[in-house]
Amino acid sequence: MKKLFRIVVPVALAMASLAVSVRAQDLASFEKRTTMKVLPNGLTVIVVERPEAPVFSFFTHVDVGADREYPGITGLAHMFEHMAFKGTDTIGTGDYAKEKPALGEVERKYQAYLREREKSVGRDEKKLAELEEAWQQAMKEAQKYVKENEFGKIVEENGGVGLNAFTSNEETGYHYSFPSNRIEVWAYLESDRFLHPVFREFYKERDVVHEERRLSESSPFGRLFEQFSGAAFIAHPYGRPVVGWPSDLESFSETDAENFYKKYYVPASMVVTLVGDVKASEVLPIVEKYFGRLPAGPKPEPLRTIEPPQNAERIVILHETSQPVFIEGYHKPGARDKDDADYDALQDLMSNGRTSRLYRSLVRDKKIAAFSGGFNGFPGSKYPNLFVFFAVSTPGHTPDETRDAIHAEIERVRKEDITDEELQMIKTRAKADLIRKLGDNQGLAFQLGSAQSLYGDWRELFRHVDDIAKVSKADIRRVANATFVESNRTVGMIESTQLAQASAAGKETK
Amino acid sequence: MIPRQRITVALSVTLCLLASAPASHGQATDWRKIQAPPLHAFHPQEPRRVELPNGMVIFLQEDHELPLIRGTAEIRGGSLNEPAEKVGLVQIYGEVWRTGGTQSKTGDQLDDYLEAHAAKVETSGGTDHTTVTWDCMKENLDDVFKVFVELLRNPEFREDKLPLAKNQADTSISRRNDDPFEIAFREAAKLVYGAGSPYARVPEYATVAAVTRQDLLTWHERYVHPNNIILGVAGDFDSAKMEATLREAFESWPKGPAAAKLDAAFEGPKPGVYFVQKDDVTASTVQMVDLGTRRDNPDYYAIDVFNEFFGGGFSSRLFSNIRSKKGLAYAVGGGIGTDFDHPGVLRLFLGTKSKTTAAALDAFLAELNELKTNPATPEELKKAKESILNSFVFRFDSKEKVLRERMTYEFYGYPADFLERYQAGIEKVTQDDITRVVSRYVHRDRMAVLVVGKASDFDRPLTSFGPVTALDVSIPPPGGAKKTEGKATNSEGKALMSKVIEGLGGAEKVREVKAFREKVKLKVQTPQGEMSLDGEGYSVFPDRVAERMTTPMGEMAMVVTPDASFMSMPTGTRDLPGPQKDRMLQELWTDPLFVAQHAEDPKFAFAAGGIEKIGDVEANILDVTANGSQVRWFVDSKTGHVVRTVAQTAEMGAPAEVVSDYSDWRAVQGVIFPFKETSTRNGQFASSEEAVEIEVNPAVDPKLFEKPATSGGGNP
Question: Is A210 on the interface with B (CB under 8 A)?
Answer without folding.
Answer: yes
